[in-house]
Amino acid sequence: MIQTPESEKTMSSTTPSSLASVAQAKPERNGTNSAQGTGLETRGIHAWFGKNHVLSDINLDFTAGSVTALIGPSGCGKSTFIRTINRMHEFIPGAAMAGEVLLDGKDVYAPGVDVTKIRLQIGMVFQKPNPFPSMTIGENVLSGLKLAQLKVDNKDDLLEECLVRAGLWTEVKDRLNTHGGSLSGGQQQRLCIARALAVRPQVLLMDEPCSALDPGSTLRIEDTIRELSDTMTIVIVTHNMQQAARVSDYTAFFLSDGGPGEMIEVARTSEIFSQPKDQRTENYVTGRFG
Amino acid sequence: MSTLATPQKPWAKRPIDRARELAIVLFAGFFSFAFVAVTEMKGKLAYALIFFIAYALLSATFAFISRGAPAAKDAVVSTFVSLGAVLTVLPMLSILFTVIKNGLPGLHLGLLNHDMSMATPTDPIATGGILHAVTGTLTLVALALIMSVPIGILTALYLTEVKGKFAGPIRFLVQAMSGVPSIVAGLFILSAVLYPITKGYSALMGSLALTILMIPTIARTSEEVLLLIPNDLREAGTALGGTQWRTVAMIVLPAARSGLMTAVILGVARIAGETAPILLLTGGGDKVNPNPFNGSVGSIPYYIWKSFNAGSPEAITRAWAGLLVLMVLVFILFIAARSLSSRKISK
Ligand SMILES: Nc1ncnc2c1ncn2[C@@H]1O[C@H](COP(=O)(O)OP(=O)(O)O)[C@@H](O)[C@H]1O
Ligand SMILES: [Mg+2]
Q1: Pick from A195, A118, A127: which is nearest to B250 by CA?
Q2: Which of A79, A160, A255, B111 has the fewest CB atoms within 10 Å, i.e. is most exposed?
Q3: Its family (chain B) (predicted)?
Q4: Is A130–B254 a contact, with Cβ atoms under 8 angstroms apart?
Q5: Secondary structure of B122-174 in HEC code, one letter for each residue
């Protein structure tokens, strides 16, 4: 397995202490009780693709109302891990998993659980912006309600609220009836965030949401993430150390040494960037990897 | 002060290039003319052949002189490529031209609002009409569409979305089915449905055979279209709490709409002029038959066949007119389907 940090350029120009100061510059948060629910925990998650064991024994607690960044070289299983959380992993033929994902204390893999309800509670934003091409901007935002056959009293209010929270309202409020494909990449990604918010998830999973975007859009989305984290639990996969430092309260470092990916350590983001406990974490966050 | 820039196209052909091309064409034309006049060769085909060879040689020589051997090869290859395009288009234009030329004399004012119940094919052109055939063909196509579109698209959905255990064998069968000769489909309905069950001609019998012919076209084209829809969209739909089928219905199918419409158009094109099963199953008829489930019904292919068989000059003109009407009808169906699908997309 090739293990090269993908954003070498950003990292080599950054000293660990400056990342740590970025991480410390934002208000300290432990996760708040204003968020709904008691949170999300994973217990002993393993994952396989066919016979290929790609993820081993991941135990992570995501405090309600906090942002957790998952970092690590590509191929170490970050995407696979977050896809086990909202049960998207099972869509891949030959996929298997072990362990428990506890949402408010209940295992999402327990028999009899309605998997579509789980995905309503745990929303997801993908790496590539993927607005629905046959729908207008407005229809895109509200598409989750139709897909899940949910009723709301006032669609217009919900539409505006979601677009405002995703930081897109002022840019699109005059063209809600045009197609999402006419937006820029960054706007499309914020549209996808708005779409995920409309079904009011308590957890939002984001898999490298900014990797296809320009720096301006990236900063806007980071602002959005900070604002959203007051009311929901956010898990974000990122290859950008700066981004992890800027947006996350906690950071977990994943690594695969040829075998299945493992979680090396998890701690407050400021600690990961200033005094990581594991030598491999330090090597990775300082760009001295491999 | 800013200088005013005028938009230019430095890559466009200069007048001298155009002049040279024109010269090559003219010279090749002249040469083919002269060559045919001097030698034993005769006919349009000879002109075309000599023209083509002369054109290829001349443009290659010019290219060689100005830009060397690679350019000469390039010129020869592009000549061959154009020849391919010409060879494809020529027969079609020729057919179109023949149908229009021979069909126009058969058109008259009463053509589309009379049937042949009061006339025979050998009567003067201005008597009778093809109302019965047009309505019959439209009925056949409509019934076949009602049956084959759902079956064809559901088959495609099974292959692309369910990806069940039988996807492989079904894909194979569908491909094999697209090679079924139409007469076989006709005989099958004749022996499996018409003789044992209905014991009589009807539009329904004809459209059953057409459905058999249409399903493989629709299923295969739809499958290809659905495979082009990015998986991201399916994942996004499911991640928003949609079940697989709501995601397919709300996201995958709308995204594939114009492609699916193309599949349906291709299906209609496959069957609109189909004759063999129609002869076996619909019984013809010279009167408009409003009941699609009972009684023999006319259709344009049947009318053409019957008129050609009658043999008199009037009858043969009628047949050409029928061909012309059929072509126009298929063309109108295409345009309608196209504009329907694109209007919904750009809503
Ligand atoms: N659809 C798949 N089929 C088979 N193997 C896969 C699939 N997706 C990912 N993998 C494998 O699983 C491992 C983890 O991949 P992934 O979770 O995408 O890593 P990351 O997101 O950290 O880059 C990799 O070795 C990858 O090759
Ligand atoms: Mg990934």
Answers
A1: A195
A2: A160
A3: Belongs to the binding-protein-dependent transport system permease family. CysTW subfamily.
A4: no
A5: CCCCCCCCCHHHHHHHHHHHHHHHHHHHHHHHHHHHHHHHHCCCCHHHHHHHH
* Same domain, residue pair B71 and B181: no
Task: Give the C-alpha separation, A69 to B156, whole Å.
Answer: 41
Residue B164 forms contact with A (CB below 8 Å): no
C-alpha dihedral (B315, B316, B319, B325), degrees to nearest 10: -100
Report how far ligand 2's centroid is from the alpha carbon of A83 (Å).
10
Distance in angstroms between the alpha carbons of the first and the last residue of chain B: 46
Rounded distance, CA B140 to CA B208, Å?
9
Three-state DSSP class for residue A92: coil
Total-model pTM: 0.82
Residue A80 CB–ligand 1 contact under 6 Å:
yes
For chain B, how many structural domains are there in total?
2
Closest Cα to atom 26 of ligand 1: A75
> What phi and psi, each to the nearest 5 degrees, are found at residue A281?
-60, -45
- Any ligand 1 atom below 6 A from CB of A245: no
Select from A86, A130, A196 the Cβ nearest to the Cβ of B233: A130
Indicate the length of chain A as a whole number.
290
| Ligand 1 closest atom vs CA A83 | 17
Cβ–Cβ contact B245 with A under 8 A: no
Q: Compute the distance from residue A207 Cα to the ligand 2 centre, in Å.
A: 7
User: Parallel, antiparallel, or unpaired for β A203-207 and A67-71?
Assistant: unpaired
Q: Calculate how far, in angstroms, residue A286's C-alpha sits from the geometric centre of ligand 1.
A: 25
Does B19 fall in a domain? Answer: yes
Q: Which domains does chain A have, with CATH numbers?
A: 6-129+203-285 (3.40.50.300)
DSSP annotation string for B63-121: HHHHH-HHHHHHHHHHHHHHHHHHHHHHHHHHHHHHHHHHHGGG--TTTTT--STT--T
Q: Is A283 in the pocket of ligand 1 (CB under 6 A)?
A: no
CA B242-B246-B249 angle, 5° bins: 140
Q: What are residue A214's phi and psi, to 5 degrees?
A: -75, 165
* Residue B272, domain extent: 131-342
- pLDDT of chain A, 290 residues: tens digit per residue: 444 444 444 444 455 567 778 777 776 666 554 444 568 999 999 999 999 999 999 999 998 889 999 999 999 999 999 999 999 999 898 999 999 999 998 999 999 999 999 999 999 999 999 999 999 999 999 999 999 999 888 999 999 999 998 989 999 999 999 998 889 989 999 999 999 999 999 999 999 999 888 888 899 889 999 989 888 999 999 999 999 999 999 999 999 988 999 999 999 999 999 999 999 999 999 887 64
Crossing angle of helices B313-345 and B257-271, in 10° steps, is 170
**Can you tell me the ipTM of this complex?**
0.85
Instruction: Name the token pair of B117.
Output: 């119940």
Which of ligand 1's atoms lies nearest the C-alpha of A78?
Answer: 22
Q: What is the best residue among A3, A4, A58, A79 to mutate for testing ligand 1's pocket, by most ligand atoms within 8 Å of CB? A: A79
Which residues neighbour ligand 2 (ion) by CB within 5 Å?
A: A 79
